[in-house]
Design brief:
The complex is a heterotrimer of chains A (about 210), B (about 210) and C (about 280).
Chain A lengths: L1 H17 L7 H35 L6 H9 L13 H31 L6 H18 L5 H10 L3 H43 L6
Chain B lengths: L4 H19 L4 H38 L5 H20 L5 H33 L5 H16 L2 H6 L3 H10 L1 H25 L12
Helix pairs in contact in B: 1-2, 2-3, 5-7, 7-8
Chain C lengths: L4 H4 L5 H17 L10 H11 L6 E7 L5 H17 L3 E6 L4 H12 L11 E3 L7 H5 L4 H4 L26 E6 L5 H11 L4 E4 L3 H10 L5 E4 H12 L5 H33 L10
Parallel strand pairs in C: 1-2, 1-4, 2-3, 4-5, 5-6
Helix pairs in contact in C: 2-11, 3-10, 4-10, 10-11
Classes of the chains: A mainly alpha (about 210), B mainly alpha (about 210), C alpha/beta (about 280).
Chain lengths: ~210, ~210, ~280
């Protein structure tokens, strides 16, 4: 019974979302606010369960060192009390510092060394040539070749030399990569709608065959 | 001192401890301290999850109290927030009633709103994809080949299209994205080092 | 006076586009056209890798998606989970997005029974952890980071974790993701332990993981709704992705058609109005 009610309610809510295509209206606004409320509730509940499991429970068992992150966590809320609002920077700095450390340890091996290594291919076939030149020119385009007004100056000084060739090769590679990314993004966005139509015309109005 | 220097010291210590654990794994003290810092970050991040809810509570309570435009929708938001927080905290997120809320309220709205993107991207593709110069031409060509090459209709129209699409993804796309990945890695390392060394302070906000 | 044809080609009203899109989707959904389904190399590699795992191997299935993208990720996850269960693999679910746990609960409440899977013995759901990348890096010190399951039961009391020392005991990691978050597993766990990664991602994820597929850091990938449909067929499990592919095909055709129509008007307008003149587009 609860599931049947829920299914029809879901259908109504999806239609309320679609109604936004005509114009913003009450049904859409209510649905949107219901969703934001649930999302915030979810954040509170899951945040609390993390705090309890990783902080409070071990603290009760005698792991007193955990006072440090718990106090830091509470200090995040100091921002709502003006005289102490600067204390909210402590946890922020802690999170940023730790995240920076984690990021460095993550990218060195997997994203930098492994990817550079994987690009060192023998230039014995077309694919390898495209791969090596494409990677190198993309990198050069981002890191070493000036763009915008600076580029104009360089172009004037160098004419259409090697720098320009690398720039254009880099640009072509990036455009092809972004174009294909766009194609995949379209694919994703369309499938969101297909799934909702499958639900509406499969479960609510049974027109789509199983 | 407490407003700027202490946060910078905290950030420096947190970052160097994590790096120390990575570069000196044999050092048992650093290893254990590094583990603690990563675990503590999860605890502090968990506290941060509640910040959005506190902001929402403040904003929407005020809106209702002042009967500002849209105050009726704020009631819906607060009712949803309070109800599902109570259910989640007292009955748990694995309880049938919380799951019912997720499956029949939250999921359909969230997915319904995101499915509007299908309409937007169709209209945007039609209006903005223009063959203006060779670069936009390459961009468009890549997109069109990939769009048709990934689905059955593409093969019916041009037999070799899926192979061309796969080649674009496997070779030129990989080359471009690899360049971006390597450049991104260098950038991430540089930015992270700046954060640890206290040269990057934007996240602390303005003021003293 | 009505505008010339090349201008009109560039200004089809939005409501007409929206209505056509719905029609183009609905017709093949109601009357399937039986268009060919392509089989990508990435999906095949993913399937073959998982299919070759011996019974009892441990799959670490990360859930990093939410309802915004579950149209792609949920059919992928369902096809994968059914394949794991069919082959008797042990599953550890780990949500790294707030909503992820709810999808794991759907498996517990509905789908686990299909294959007689017992909670605690054949599969376990870990709790969501805040922190993004740190919540994945933390897994390297598994027992201090993850003492209990989503119900609060200590992991050491669950049969699946008897003899489990750390993430090195995991045979494959499968991040099911709507963003490039799955790459954090490559950065932290594949790099540290060499644990194989199979990625299940939304379509826009593929371009980003391309370099990692080419380097062998990611063994295979199930991408988008088409990847889910391909996997359903390869694994021989039921699902709704296959039935959606005709509609997806027609949607792509519509967009390509619209882009071509718009460009026809644009290029002709440019020719008529001269290179530096108006391009003929009305706002």
């Amino acid at each position: 019974m609860a599931d049947t009610v829920g299914t029809y309610l879901s259908g109504l809510l999806i239609v309320a979302c679609f109604s936004y295509l005509f114009k913003e209206n009450r049904a859409f606004t209510y649905a949107e606010h219901l969703y934001v409320g649930f999302a915030a509730a979810q954040a509170i509940v899951l945040g609390w369960s993390n705090i309890k499991e990783m902080g409070l429970d071990p603290l009760r068992q005698g792991k007193f060192i955990l006072v440090i992150p718990l106090v830091l966590g509470v200090l995040l809320y100091a921002r709502y009390y003006k005289p102490l609002s600067h204390l909210a920077r402590f946890p922020l700095a802690f999170m940023m510092g730790a995240a920076a450390g984690v990021t460095i340890t993550g990218v060195i091996d997997a994203q930098l060394v492994a990817q550079v290594k994987a690009t060192m291919l023998p230039m014995t076939n077309l694919n390898n040539v495209v791969m090596v030149l494409g990677t190198a020119s993309t990198l050069a385009f981002f890191l070493f070749i000036p763009i915008g007004k600076k580029a104009e100056g360089v172009k004037a000084a160098n004419g259409f030399g090697a720098g320009n060739l690398v720039r254009n090769l880099g640009r072509a590679t990036i455009m092809l990569a972004f174009g294909s990314s766009y194609g995949y993004t379209v694919m994703a966005r369309l499938s969101y709608l297909v799934a909702r139509l499958q639900f509406l015309f499969g479960r609510i109005i049974p027109l789509i065959p199983d | 001192m407490t407003r700027r220097t202490v946060p910078l010291i905290i950030g420096f210590l947190a970052g160097t401890i994590v790096l120390g654990k990575y570069f000196l794994p044999q050092n048992a003290f650093l290893d254990s301290l590094g583990t603690d810092v990563v675990n503590w970050r999860t605890i502090v991040a968990a506290f941060a999850l509640g910040l959005g809810a506190v902001n929402l509570l403040g904003t929407h309570t005020m809106r209702i109290a002042r009967k500002e435009k849209g105050w009726d929708a704020s009631i819906v938001l607060l009712a949803s927030l309070v109800t599902f927080t109570a259910i989640g905290l007292f009955k748990g997120t694995t309880s049938p009633v919380y799951q019912w809320g997720f499956n029949y309220l939250y999921q359909p709205i969230y997915s319904g709103i995101s499915s509007l993107l299908a309409f937007m991207i169709t209209s945007a593709s039609y209006r903005s994809f223009r063959f203006k110069d060779w670069q936009s031409g390459v961009l468009m060509l890549g997109a069109v080949i990939v769009m048709l090459g990934q689905v059955g209709i593409g093969e019916l129209l041009f037999r070799g299209l899926p192979a061309v699409s796969s080649w674009i993804m496997a070779v030129p796309n990989t080359a471009g994205m690899r360049g971006i990945a390597i450049g991104g890695a260098l950038g991430a390392i540089a930015l992270s080092l700046r954060v640890i060394l206290g040269l990057e302070r934007g996240y602390l906000g303005g003021g003293q | 006076m009505s505008s010339p044809w090349y201008e009109r080609l560039q200004s089809i009203p939005k409501p007409a586009i929206y209505a056509t899109l719905i029609l183009v989707f609905l017709v093949p959904l109601i009357r399937p056209m039986g268009l060919p389904l392509l089989m990508s190399e990435n999906t095949r590699k993913a399937y073959e890798y998982i299919d070759a795992l011996p019974e009892g191997s441990i799959v670490f299935h990360s859930i990093a998606f939410n309802p915004a993208v579950d149209a792609e990720n949920w059919p992928q996850m369902l096809a994968l989970v059914r394949h794991y269960m069919k082959n008797g693999l042990k599953i550890i679910f780990y949500p790294t997005m707030q909503e992820g746990g709810m999808y794991a609960e759907r498996i517990r409440s509905t789908y686990a029974a299909e294959y007689g899977y017992e909670y605690g013995e054949d599969y376990v759901i870990l709790p969501f952890k805040a922190g993004g990348e740190s919540a994945i890096a933390g897994l390297k010190d598994f027992w201090s980071f993850m003492p209990s399951d989503v119900d609060g039961t200590p992991l050491k009391d669950l049969p699946l974790f008897q003899g489990f020392t750390d993430m090195r005991d995991v045979d494959v990691i499968v991040p099911c993701t709507g963003s490039s978050d799955g790459l954090f597993y490559v950065s932290h766990l594949n790099a540290a332990y060499g644990t194989p990664i199979i990625m299940a991602g939304t379509a826009p994820v593929l371009p980003f993981i391309g370099p990692f597929l080419a380097s062998g850091q990611v063994k295979g990938a199930i991408i988008g709704l088409s990847g889910a449909a391909e996997y359903e067929i390869l694994a021989g499990v039921p699902g709704q992705a296959t039935g959606a592919m005709d509609a997806q095909s027609m949607g792509h055709l519509l967009i390509v058609g619209l882009v071509l129509i718009g460009n026809l008007g644009f290029l002709y307008g440019k020719r008529v109005n001269g290179k530096n003149g108006q391009n003929g587009r009305r706002s």
